[in-house]
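Feature request disguised as a bug: please show the residue count (617) next to Nitrate transporter 1.5 in the output. Example input:
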Amino acid sequence: MASSTSLEISKEGGSELMDLGRGREKIMKEEMDADDEYTLDGTVDRHGRPSIRGKSGGWFAGILILVNQGLATLAFFGVGVNLVLFLTRVLQQDNAEAANSVSKWTGTVYIFSLVGAFLSDSYWGRYKTCAIFQVIFVVGLAMLSLSTYLFLVKPNGCGVEALECRTHSSFEIALFYLSTYLVALGNGGYQPNIATFGADQFDEEDSNEGFQKVAFFSYFYLALNLGSLFSNTILGYFEDEGMWALGFWCSTGSAFVALVLFLAGTPKYRHFKATGNPLARFCQVVIAAAKKWRAAVPESGDDLCEVKAISGGRKILHTHGFKFLDRAAIITSRDLALQDEGKNSPWILCTVTQVEEVKCILRLLPIWLCTILYSVVFTQMASLFVEQGAAMKTTIGDFKIPPASMSSFDILSVAAFIFIYRRVLDPLVSRLKSKNSQGLTELQRMGIGLIIAVIAMITAGIVENFRLKSATIDCLNCEGSSTMSIFWQVPQYALIGASEVFMYVGQLEFFNGQAPDGLKSFGSALCMTSISLGNYVSSLLVSIVMKISKEDDMPGWIPGNLNRGHLDRFYFLLAALTTADFLLYIVCARWYKYIKMGGRESNRGSIHQEKSEEFRV
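Example output, currently without the count:
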């Protein structure tokens, strides 16, 4: 009897143990299933917890960011697209001075992108940086709208051909420049981070989301251009007719709506944590390498120091080249002694990943420098193309076409060529390639963009040459002084649009993909600073050309009265310079070595460890 009872107890106990085991197995399976839902790229939610794939990021967050970008671009170009006409008609600057002012302002916008990228990568993170600079952007636009309404457009209705504005005081001019440069600061600090933040919403470690991330950059540039379409047409028309304050207030409203939409998506965003000051890491490598300048560099990177990558980042594999920097990762007897004493210092010994970060930036710089001259070509749309168009026939019946609105053909060209590239050209090239299934590389696309830019400048020069033949030379107000229709500018705008798809979309993908994980915003900022320096180089080039081409009886190539100048020669000069730049670019592209990434140091490892310890207990 006792034995049967003990047998029953034993069976019951065994059954309970089996049920407990099944329960634990079920819990483990559920936990592992939940764990599989986490993103693999190390992103976190706003509370610092690992991002769950189904509840964050993806196209929901991506579309919010695309709409935000479109509205913010509408606001920015609502000011920028007609700024050259505002300076000439309202502030009474001549054509060359106005073109230089616009180039300097636009250049400053993109210089501020480096400030935003540094704060984002180092301290604030991309979300906080985007939010703060968008607030500055809205404040600057509101100040510009108020100053224009209260002080600048006086008497009311001035700023058109028929009515000149009065002379402005120093205070009014200072207020105008303060507000426009606040717009430059806000937009500049926001732009490189919003592109990278949008890309952060897609997990590149997942094959499906990795493909979506590549597509995001094309759609991002498309959203940018569609946003500027409204400002180049509707707002451009208002401003060309003298309704400057209304146009600027529309820009302010658009920027405010963009900010509200951005903040509304806060619970859904994925984030990468800021990784600390990259300048310090850069200096540590240079100083550590200099201290070990006598050390012998090993042939391979196997003997170099590698501990772990930055938090949430990937290790970068060792590459040959810039061998001097490898000395920073050589482990000497002194390093071992310091390690035993617990006195390791990154100013003495760096990791391979840290060294490769510096190498990546050094390799990117020649490619980046070759894109600057393309930006000189691109910036002509906002200055000389507009002035050229204003000197052509701009009327159809009683309707007058604002010269700045011709850039809408650039936007339509961008939209068309993004579709052509994604749906036709890229699949076709993939089939023709025998080695792999990829289409054109980013470097190849950027080279094609340079070639199309050369053709665009030659086209613009030919159009200007024919315009001069049909223009009235001795005219007081030379707007519309040529019988040649402004629609002859369509080919040059369309060609610039086609070149943008290859150059700027390729740039966004290239610099974002080749920048180390801790410098992604800096990678996007490189795209913008190339535009910035392009504007400054354009301004310098115009000044040099005007100084050299001016003679006793000749006003130079780009005078106030374009009918007495030779703008066509300036366009041909740009075509020649861009051709030389393309040849240099080929050399740099062949020399470039792509970054080699290793495994990612994710925060998911600690989650696995905590679970395994819990189940062992």
